[in-house]
């Protein structure tokens, strides 16, 4: 389902310390799909999960959560009706204008936290610069498809009217594992793929570690002191 109509409301709030904030609400719909999301300063605060029939607050537990009034999900459902009827009007008005499709311009895969073998972490697949939304993201571990522990956020609009989506995979870094994320988009003939793990998980001890550099430094330093002391004594003897 392609989300074709996006109504975005951008407003600026200035709080008591005169910091500029950017508030964003988006409504989008297609024949088969829909989106309603509220964000502040580029962070998703709330979105409607129309498949599960409820609102989702995706913020991690350590942030102070914004509270939403009763009926915000019902409002989102009502907005979908409005969006679909707008979509119908736009379609007939714009039927002679060809659709523009932009493949993702940027695709990166990276671990959220510093990698510690055997320690829980999250791999992030960051896709941006595409139009229209959404993309499909799939993950593999050593060539095998992985679905458990994956999630994707709703499409986030950028100022240039392209979209960004971020998919996540819970994982535990282990030696020899290789991960990939593949992205499907309307404008791509084949999925675009990025892999992660070759550098970090196959050669964890590549190159001399910091201990060696420290040892060499210390040796050179001590040698300097010894040479210095030698000449100091020599100098005293001569005078
Ligand atoms: C995403 O996956 C769904 C379900 O498999 C499919 O119908 C849709 O065409 C896919 N979208 C893209 C952009 O490839």
UniProtKB/TrEMBL annotation:
GO terms under biological process: adaptive immune response; antigen processing and presentation of peptide or polysaccharide antigen via MHC class II
The record's annotation in Pfam families points to:
C1-set, MHC_II_alpha
- rRNA-binding among the record's keywords? no
Q: Which GO terms describe its cellular component?
A: MHC class II protein complex
Keywords, sorted A to Z:
Adaptive immunity, Disulfide bond, Glycoprotein, Immunity, Immunoglobulin domain, Membrane, MHC II, Signal, Transmembrane, Transmembrane helix
InterPro entries in UniProt: Ig-like_dom, Ig-like_dom_sf, Ig-like_fold, Ig/MHC_CS, Ig_C1-set, MHC/Immunoglobulin, MHC_I/II-like_Ag-recog, MHC_II_a/b_N
Topology versus the membrane: Single-pass type I membrane protein
Under the heading Gene3D superfamilies, the entry gives: Class II Histocompatibility Antigen, M Beta Chain, Chain B, domain 1 (3.10.320.10), Immunoglobulins (2.60.40.10)
Q: Which domain of life is it from?
A: Eukaryota
Cellular localization per UniProt: Membrane
Q: What is its main location?
A: membrane
TM region(s), chain numbering:
210-233
State the SUPFAM superfamilies in the record: Immunoglobulin, MHC antigen-recognition domain
Q: Where does the Ig-like domain lie?
A: 104-202
Family the entry assigns: Belongs to the MHC class II family.
What PANTHER family has UniProt attached to this entry?
HLA CLASS II HISTOCOMPATIBILITY ANTIGEN, DR ALPHA CHAIN, MHC CLASS II-RELATED
Q: What is this protein called?
A: H-2 class II histocompatibility antigen, A-U alpha chain-like
């Amino acid at each position: 389902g392609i989300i074709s109509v996006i109504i975005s409301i951008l407003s600026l709030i200035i709080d008591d310390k005169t910091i500029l904030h950017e508030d964003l609400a988006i409504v989008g719909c297609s024949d088969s799909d829909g989106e309603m999301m509220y964000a502040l300063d580029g962070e998703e605060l709330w979105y409607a999960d129309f498949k599960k029939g409820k609102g989702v607050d995706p913020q991690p537990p350590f942030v102070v959560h914004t509270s939403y009034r009763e009926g915000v999900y019902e409002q989102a459902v009502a907005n979908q009706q409005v969006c679909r009827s707008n979509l119908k009007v736009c379609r007939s008005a714009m039927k002679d204008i060809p659709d523009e499709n932009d493949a993702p311009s940027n695709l990166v895969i990276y671990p959220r936290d510093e990698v510690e073998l055997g320690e829980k972490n999250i791999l992030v697949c960051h896709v941006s610069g595409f139009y229209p939304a959404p993309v499909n993201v799939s993950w593999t571990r050593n060539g095998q498809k992985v679905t458990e522990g994956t999630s994707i956020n709703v499409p986030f609009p950028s100022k240039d009217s392209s979209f960004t989506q971020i998919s996540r995979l819970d994982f535990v870094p282990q030696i020899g594992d290789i991960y990939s994320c593949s992205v499907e988009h309307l404008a791509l003939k084949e999925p675009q793929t990025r892999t992660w793990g070759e550098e970090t998980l196959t050669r964890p001890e590549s190159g001399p570690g910091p201990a060696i550099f420290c040892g060499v430094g210390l040796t050179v330093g001590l040698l300097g002191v010894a040479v210095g002391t030698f000449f100091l004594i020599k100098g005293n003897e001569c005078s």
